[in-house]
Write a structure and sequence with these properties.
Strand content: 5-15%
Structural class: alpha/beta
Number of helices: 17
Mean pLDDT: 80
Distance between the termini: 37 Å
Low-confidence stretches: 1-70, 506-517
GO molecular function: phosphoric diester hydrolase activity
GO biological process, one term: lipid metabolic process
Radius of gyration: 22 Å
Helix content: 25-40%
Bound molecules: 2-acetamido-2-deoxy-beta-D-glucopyranose
Keywords: Signal
Number of strands: 9
Largest sheet: 9 strands, mixed
Strand order of the largest sheet: 2-3-4-5-6-7-8-1-9
Shape: globular
InterPro entries: PI-PLC-C1, PLC-like_Pdiesterase_TIM-brl
Length: 517
Amino acid sequence: MVSSGAAQACLLVLLCSGSAMAKMSRWERVLQAGADATVSQAPAVAPAAAVDSGPLGAMAPAPAPMAGPPPLPKASDALALTNSSLNQLQTLGTYQSDHVAPPSAVLQLLNGSGYQQALGQNPYYAPQSFQYTLPDIFFQLDALGIRQFHFNAWKDPNGTLAAHPAGLKLAGTSNVTLDPKYSYFGYKTFGDPDFDFQSSCVTLETCLQLIQSWSVNHTDHIPITVYLEPREQTLLGNSSSLNQQLASQPGEPQQLAVPYPINGDDLVELQNTVYRVFNQSAIILPGSLLGNDSTLQVATQKAVGGSWPEMETNRGRVLFVMVDSAGKYGDMYRQLFPDLRNATFFVSQPGNGNATIDNSTVFLDYLGPLGGGSVATWTNTSANAAVKKDMARVQAAVRKGFMARVAADWQTVEAREDYHNRSMDAIKAGTHFLQTSFPNVAQLPKFAYSVLGSSNATYTNYTVSLPLRLGGSFNAGRCNPQTSAGIVANETASGCGSAADNALLAPAPGPATAVSA
Ligand SMILES: *[C@@H]1O[C@H](CO)[C@@H](O)[C@H](O)[C@H]1NC(C)=O
Ligand SMILES: *[C@@H]1O[C@H](CO)[C@@H](O)[C@H](O)[C@H]1NC(C)=O
Ligand SMILES: *[C@@H]1O[C@H](CO)[C@@H](O)[C@H](O)[C@H]1NC(C)=O
Ligand SMILES: *[C@@H]1O[C@H](CO)[C@@H](O)[C@H](O)[C@H]1NC(C)=O
Ligand SMILES: *[C@@H]1O[C@H](CO)[C@@H](O)[C@H](O)[C@H]1NC(C)=O
Ligand SMILES: *[C@@H]1O[C@H](CO)[C@@H](O)[C@H](O)[C@H]1NC(C)=O
Ligand SMILES: *[C@@H]1O[C@H](CO)[C@@H](O)[C@H](O)[C@H]1NC(C)=O
Ligand SMILES: *[C@@H]1O[C@H](CO)[C@@H](O)[C@H](O)[C@H]1NC(C)=O
Ligand SMILES: *[C@@H]1O[C@H](CO)[C@@H](O)[C@H](O)[C@H]1NC(C)=O
Ligand SMILES: *[C@@H]1O[C@H](CO)[C@@H](O)[C@H](O)[C@H]1NC(C)=O
Ligand SMILES: *[C@@H]1O[C@H](CO)[C@@H](O)[C@H](O)[C@H]1NC(C)=O
Ligand SMILES: *[C@@H]1O[C@H](CO)[C@@H](O)[C@H](O)[C@H]1NC(C)=O
């Protein structure tokens, strides 16, 4: 079991052990120095006022820290990245960037044994796994330096999908007044229409508008990457017993949400949603990278003569990646836009799966439960082995020229365990986007990120941030240790790596096991 004291203890021992400083490579020392710098600059921990209550209070949604955020340093995009290319950056991202923890009554409901059984007694679906609330999009951009976002995209043509979330009715709190945007038609962004429906922006269009309005005010920002994930599977699927329960009582809804399947036309509508908010000139399009090359891989991978374009030409712009985790939407989309030549979205595929990587795919995802979900056997040894295995694949892919997005934590499990090796090793492996639900907590009131336990509230100090440059200030991006000729700590006027520096970069070392492209 994840939260067993024993597992916790060995993880802590592991984290605290080992001054392997002497054995560290140069880049590891730089990372360490950066991490220390971050820690020493962190403000004192704010008292966790909201954490100290009984079971019901313990399950209350973490309050969003927006009431009166302290004056914070603004993230700076002003790196000397003139000669850097798009794949030489490393930035922090958020997962379900609009997520707000479900109401306490719904979490209480999900804690019931019937629900937990239906969810496979899986720690990834324990009530705590929904217990994170991200600050709003402006705060993420300004104060946390987030330059990668992720939004779910649920088709909702009539504004009915989550107009009456079943979770509220089943929990006996159907008197809650929802944001009217739940009844708007168009793509919605929540985690689940019945139980995990809270969002700081609700409609995809609203979420994108926030990014767009910030972007036009900060024209020199490094590119913002937005992952859009089509969704059509609900948390509990079609449960006849819950449907009976819902139908036996008056009031909406009379059954669990029935999601709309997403087809090619809907992907076009997803594009239209983007164009209702962004001018095409603000978007980095796949075609602009492809040029006259035959595939996006050929256009971007050094071994076959490609290279990523310069940062400088893409400042102030936004890039969209459609997530294809099950080998479905990518094919659908490429039928509409062969080779992605005239497409708006890039497509990402899992880099840690077995599926063939399409030759138009240049974005790989390393997400999901660490080690594929066998958290029950998650000792320090198996956790670290899983990290090593995943990050070897990340490093090989990054060196080959792919853009990687790596989860630092999944469904709050790493936060509950205060387990940092996944994020630390991802940084070293050169992930371009380090994606977390717990960005730089030092910048926020502590209680906003409390991971609430089942009896007394408990929290860890888990947080994810990128190491600062030596003597550096708070920057929204940093040079990528795998693709920037190692210029991590002291970017010079020539950016993350001059042409000459990069020529010295070793070709992809080691077994190129992972990437079958
Ligand atoms: C949307 O609502 C209209 C009018 O009520 C109905 O005719 C149509 O079938 C609904 N569409 C979907 C996809 O549910
Ligand atoms: C909803 O109902 C609950 C339980 O009856 C009550 O405690 C709560 O105050 C009500 N909320 C609103 C907004 O009316
Ligand atoms: C953009 O700048 C204008 C003018 O300074 C300001 O009124 C507005 O609040 C800014 N918007 C954002 C999202 O920063
Ligand atoms: C759910 O299951 C019931 C009974 O098996 C079936 O009649 C119904 O059509 C299903 N609903 C959906 C949306 O699949
Ligand atoms: C892309 O768009 C251009 C101009 O609209 C068109 O001429 C071309 O045939 C399209 N290419 C593909 C592969 O669809
Ligand atoms: C990949 O294939 C191996 C061997 O066939 C299998 O054990 C593993 O579960 C597969 N992984 C995924 C993510 O499908
Ligand atoms: C890229 O892959 C597609 C299949 O997805 C194939 O039809 C095409 O010929 C490939 N292109 C090149 C240049 O290999
Ligand atoms: C959740 O369920 C567990 C096991 O039944 C129980 O110990 C715990 O108190 C419950 N938590 C809440 C908040 O009800
Ligand atoms: C929960 O907190 C109360 C009051 O702070 C304390 O008396 C009690 O021992 C705690 N229970 C557990 C299981 O830690
Ligand atoms: C969190 O950090 C504070 C300050 O460094 C420390 O006092 C506290 O014990 C830490 N809490 C946990 C759960 O590690
Ligand atoms: C950073 O690089 C510049 C240019 O190479 C050099 O002059 C400077 O001393 C370096 N700074 C540090 C802190 O290493
Ligand atoms: C960019 O790199 C080129 C060649 O490597 C160099 O001549 C130029 O000075 C660099 N520009 C800046 C601003 O560093």
